[in-house]
Amino acid sequence: MSALLELKDIKKSFGAVHVLKSVGLEIHPGRAVGLAGENGAGKSTLMKIIAGIYARDAGTITYKGETVNYTSARQAIDDGIAVIHQELNLLPGLSVAENIFLGREPTKLGKIQWDYVKSESKKWLEALKQNIDPAAPLGSLSIAQQQMVEIARALSLNAEVIIMDEPTDALTDIEAKILFEVVADLKAQGKGLVFISHRLAEIFEICEDIAILRDGQMVHTGPTAEITENDLIRHMVGRELSDQYPFVPAKPGDIRLEVEKLSAKGFHEVSFSARAGEVVGFSGLVGAGRTELAKAIFGANHVTSGTIKIDGKAVTISNPRQGIANHIGYVTEDRKSEGLIQMHPVGSNMSLTGIAKFTNGMGMVNRKSEEITIDEFIKAFSIKTQGGASLVQNLSGGNQQKVSIAKSLIPGPRILILDEPTRGVDVGAKREIYSLINTLKAEGLCILLISSDMPELLGISDRILVLSSGKLTGEFSRDEADQESIMRCAVAGQ
Amino acid sequence: MNVKQFASDNKSLIGLLLLMAIVSVINANFLGVDNMLNILRQTSINAVIAMGMTFVIITAGIDLSVGSILAFAGAVCASLIGMDTPLVLALFATLLVGAALGATSGVIIAYAGVQPFIATLVGMTMIRGATLVYTEGRPISTGSFDVAESFYQFGAGYTFGLPNPVVVAAVVLIICWFILTHTKLGRYVYAIGGNENVARLSGVNVRAVKITVYAISGTLAALAGIILTARLESAQPTAGLGYELDAIAAVVLGGTSLMGGRGRIIGTIIGALIIGVLNNALNIMDVSSYYQMIAKGAVILLAVVVDSRGKANG
Q1: What is the DSSP letter of A338?
Q2: I need a labelling partner for B208 at 20 to 30 A (CA). Which of A172, B63, B196, B269 fits?
Q3: What is the ipTM score, two decimals?
Q4: Which residues of B touch A343 (CB under 8 A)?
């Protein structure tokens, strides 16, 4: 069977970094190829080359038997190659329907056919079992719903080749399941698919073939049936991963954080406490109020009632500045718009929160000591970058996440809130983050961990609290906790 | 750093040198010391304003009120000198007026959430109006006290063989460069322009920094007003009309992005010099002032297009 799309010897460098070194890939009609690899392995770059967003330095792309040289994403789309991007590329100010038809609005005598746009949008959203009003502003939707809109947009292009870059990252299990049904449909229609995911189980579930990238090289390609998950992980990281969640038993210290009947937008009268040297996990469905709770404690969201005590003393925290001054660190779930300044260097991003540490009474920054600290973190966290001067936007998701964590640690927090710290992070980097959490715990930090990855939460938390619709619905010690009881609490208040 | 990298990092400098080379071929008098000093002196007022504008633009803002602040501050300064106020006190009070006017825009932007364009457009109109009310539409002379003479020297005299306005601009350059590259405030200015949300969550007091940058812009506009008033020995109610546009042009020519988060103060100086050299060249080549405006606009357009093409490819 001949390939629908074939890549041969693709090479791509950014500056001195060779992101892709002679990579080949075949996409066949009616099959999905799962593309696996650590962050920074070159997956997204490869996909952007197929989609015409990046120009390749060398190699050939053959589509339907002809060599193609796309110079813009538009050309690739017109040719039937659609991409569902990892980062949402939608405009929050426009309506759902406008987003789906952005750039290809059907017109009659120059007038946009809005009725058609809306009905078509509704059709594609219904195919995804989404009851979303096409006229609603996109920004009013949850992240998961926005992701479904992005998928609907790609489907509506009627493309021959569909590339899905981490489509399930922001989705709950229910939505992911719907997506997989759609994937099966697409395969039945003879479309060729590329599916990128960090959730390896998903790749095994829906892909016929597996291709594994490591450090810009294709280290394995072949049918899914011929490879085990362990082999896949081994290929990805180039080493054996022993236990995935290296839990270190805690010897919890004194109570550091007490939250009493705290209320704010998104949650109501939540009370809990956390000790020094303890990892408290927060479970819950999307929209349960976990991020809102974290932001309220940190000072980013306005608290309407209740008290926060640190080391037994009530504190007033009404903005992030006061949160940081009270030794709270917050690592956001949304790196792109809340975590890091993408156009700025790694170094100045990392030191921003803790810049006071390098500043004298006159407001002067000691750039030498700043640089030393930045280099230490780059080394300690094995951040793949050419140095502190490289721009954050050129880093992979996992490396950006490490920068984000380093940034929150520089001021020397005593309470660290990690909001989905491993989202969009590959297996190897995930493990590094887990060991880091353990190290920080051993150093006596009080850690609040928000995660939608249940095995991860069970694996590294000392205690798990469950939120549902803004209320605390369950608390489990490490020994009591299991997926089923947590899920029961998570849906309890729904 | 290789040559190509250097060239792409210093496009505005190369543009300036290229422009100077072309002009010196056309007119042999251009490169003379007298003419060079002349250009520097003529550029210094715009350079001082543009350096303040650089802070504002790096935070992704804009300050349209600088021309009006220049006029108002000039009028205040001229009256103070006319009342025999000690020179240092008069200068200090005038700078304070500029800082207060700028900070007011900053407060409106930071607390009322008004777009910088609108807030400073309102400021531009109202401050110009206030200047006309205060001066009753007539020039204010700096008077005939002794202080008026030392004030005149401040604007027209020389230090180390350089015109005083050039020395002032150089001092301002060093201070601004230091603030932007070596202080916490500088980091915060870039951070806010890079992503205000990230800056806020990183503990930056966004409102205070915004008020500060508009205060800096207002202070430097007032300083430009002082220099101009001193040289003319009087404050004109219509002084500084349209200066905000020259300042913005200098900042943009210097490679600072109007989107914020990026920019260098030295770039702004080069941008101001490009405008200064162009004005001078068109003058010594006897081009009519009507055509000068067209030529100036065309060069700015060319420079900005070259710059943004480089960015799109890189």
Answers
A1: I
A2: B269
A3: 0.85
A4: 194, 261-262
